[in-house]
Specification:
This protein is of the alpha/beta class and about 290 residues long. The protein has one domain: Alpha-Beta Barrel (TIM Barrel), CATH 3.20.20. The chain is about 45% helix and about 20% strand. It has an eight-stranded parallel beta barrel with strand order 1-2-3-4-5-6-7-10, surrounded by seven helices. Strands 8-9 form a two-stranded antiparallel sheet. Helix 7 links the parallel strand 5 and strand 6. Helix 6 packs across helix 7.
Length: about 290
């Protein structure tokens, strides 16, 4: 083995230890979080700002923020750095950002564009101090096979993981319909990418049916979790989500990380979310080591 190979191996080993999903049998360490998407209407109308989310987290004793970037007024330092400082001074971690992406692109040029966009958001995440980005696999183009589209997703994620890893940022592929509609396909993609910087962003409300079973399948690869108030069961019907059951599943898997409330119901999140956030906090404490 050459001296250069030894140096490369030494640089990679800590990353593997830090970024790899925890194994079952380890004690869980759970933290509560708010997904900015919960306040989408107010953020879009500018009646609520991203600094306001820091205040909401403090008021509800929440540990972290997952900042959906759709309504960022800018990606310049003039916006990002004061927000980072505000969160730090209030003991709130901006641990994740959530972005749009579609990696099921049939041409190399389109995939390169997706890759460049992910790189841009990796830089934003790094400036905010966020160690995770939620990404989407995308929709299988008409006339293409799912197997072929999955190869494109693997290609983009493999390349993206190299840059993300160089910045210390983990990419979480969300179960978000399309190519990621089923747990088995998600696991196949993540295994094929084979990077410590790529895992699964588990959205508990996004599977179309058999949700608890599918969640169990992707649980070992999960690097971030979004809790919803409803879940789809065996026959595809919506039911109230059993948060205690989900948190217990996370704990049994040895998950260490955030559980972010992503509120999508019709009621005003300003009044509807505080009791849900308290419940989330209580569960995080109940099942943590």
């Amino acid at each position: 083995m050459t001296r250069r190979s030894l140096i490369q191996l030494a640089a990679t080993a800590p990353a593997l230890a830090v970024a790899a999903p925890p194994a079952a049998g380890k004690k869980a360490r759970l933290r509560s979080a708010i997904c900015a998407y919960s306040y989408r209407d107010a953020l879009a109308k500018k009646t609520l700002s991203y600094p306001d989310l820091v205040r909401i987290a403090v008021d509800n004793q929440i540990d972290g923020l997952d900042l959906t970037v759709y309504w960022f007024p800018s990606t310049e330092d003039s916006f990002l750095l004061p927000l980072k400082a505000l969160a730090y001074r209030n003991g709130v971690e901006i641990y994740s950002i959530s972005v749009r992406s579609d990696m099921c692109r049939p041409t190399p040029e389109q995939r390169d564009k997706e890759l460049a966009d992910v790189h841009k958001w990796v830089d934003v995440a790094a400036k905010l101090g966020a160690g995770h980005i939620r990404v989407f696999g995308g929709i299988v183009p008409k006339g293409e096979t799912e197997d072929h589209a999955a190869e494109w997703v693997v290609e983009v994620l493999k390349k993206a993981s190299q840059y993300a890893g160089s910045k210390g940022v983990i990419l979480g592929l969300e179960n978000h319909g399309g190519i990621t509609a089923k747990a088995d396909r998600i696991v196949q993609i993540v295994k094929a990418v084979d990077s410590p910087w790529v895992g699964v962003n588990l959205d508990t409300g996004n599977f179309e049916r058999d949700a608890y079973q599918q969640i169990a399948t992707i649980m070992p690869y999960t690097v971030n979790v979004q809790f919803k108030t409803e879940i789809r069961v065996e026959n595809g019907r919506n039911e109230p989500s059993d948060w205690d059951r989900l948190t217990r599943m996370l704990a049994d898997s040895g998950y260490r990380g955030y559980m972010a409330l992503e509120y999508e119901a019709k009621s005003d999140p300003i009044t509807a979310m505080p009791p849900l956030l308290k419940k989330l906090n209580d569960l995080a404490k109940k099942y943590s080591a």
